[in-house]
Amino acid sequence: MTRQLHLGGFLIASPVTHSHAAWRHPGSETDYFGPDHYHRVGRILERGKFDFAFFADLLAAPVRFGGDQSEPFRRGTQAAATIDPTLVAASIAAVTSRLGIAVTKSTTYFHPYELARVFGSLDHLTRGRIAWNIVTSLSQAEAQNFGFESHLEHDERYLRAEEFVRTAIELWSSWEPDAVTADKESGVWADPDKIRTVDHIGEYYRTRGPLNQPRSPQHRPVLIQAGASETGRNFAARWAEAIFEIDPTPEGRRAYYDDVKSRASDHGRNPDHVKIFPSFIPFIGETASIAREKQAFHNELADPISGLITLSVHTDHDFSQYDLDAPVADISVSGTQGLFDVARRLSQRDSLTLRDIGKLYAQGVLLPQFVGTATDVADQIEESFAGGEADGFIVSSAQTPGTFNDFVDYVVPQLQRRGLFRKEYHGTTLREHLGLGSADEDLPADLRAESTLLAG
Ligand SMILES: Cc1cc2nc3c(=O)[nH]c(=O)nc-3n(C[C@H](O)[C@H](O)[C@H](O)COP(=O)(O)O)c2cc1C
Q: How much is the pTM?
């Protein structure tokens, strides 16, 4: 059987996703705070046999650019207004039956017990279709919303995240799969010998457990991450079963793919069970020139200041202090270093100013744009997939739900005809869609040796 690719649809429960122009697009829907919009998108992605819908999330309104929040609200930039994706996931789950749903939640500002309970519940409610995008959060504003003066230092965030994920897995493993008997005759509901206390006392977290919830269908959510820095890649290769990546260059994508796969092997994991998902925005037209017109119309709507407002959030660095018509300064940032490295690489390679990078950021957070007829876009996907850059792709939208509709109606059939993508869902859980092993199998080797973390 030909190696098949996987697909995720990128969303944020807000007017802005990667594209800061999408909400202004005449074709875009505007009911971002009601259920119908997400039900429509969920059904479209399921009709396209997508593996999952992916919800990114940020925990604060943007204030980093010039320390001002009025412009972000006026321009409606990323995360200026969002609703909680865990709740949107439960809503989409009710109107779909196979589509996986990935939800972002931070290890820095929540407690492992609360998170384990939320994602265990979502795995029950979705009948095994949930994934957790593990983030350490990005900005000072998020820290201040949770009562902290400043955001934790980059690598410390990952140290906390390491203990957080371990503790959550201990909690998800605190019930044996067959602990619940629910025997009405004898009146015995569960076997207490198959439910264990966790008693985790760590450097950052303490929790007694067990989780007051039976084992969920996938045992635990599929783990997703997007680390791109040295520390981030190591963390992603150690824990993640799917890794989300942004890099507009084929050589950058290939290098990331090879690097992370080899790190996963170093952690004693099967690299085939660590799926790499670069992302792109498609512009599809009946002809290539119609597609280019759609792209030009969209990109013209994107304003550089909106892009720099979001770049400042993602990097937790105030870019309003620089000359917008000068190249991007050679600085280190405390937010997402990986994404900033891509911006600087582009600025040097193509002699782009900070304003140019702002424009690119507003057009789609540096995501490459695949433009052309459905055949052209399928060709670009096949070339990237066959070129050792990806196991799957995160599709982001220029207008919502229009981009997803066009992609499902015109590009998916092309990929299916080429044998590159499923024609039907074969499994019911997200783990099955992604072709992963069992929840135990995919843990790093050192943890597979510890029984308390195993499903048993
Ligand atoms: C493609 C991509 C998507 C991300 N999505 C989110 C998100 O939704 N919420 C968030 O707080 N951080 C998000 N991040 C930030 C990462 O989770 C991570 O914290 C950040 O990339 C820092 O990692 P690094 O410095 O190791 O690259 C994302 C990063 C990338 C590259």
A: 0.96
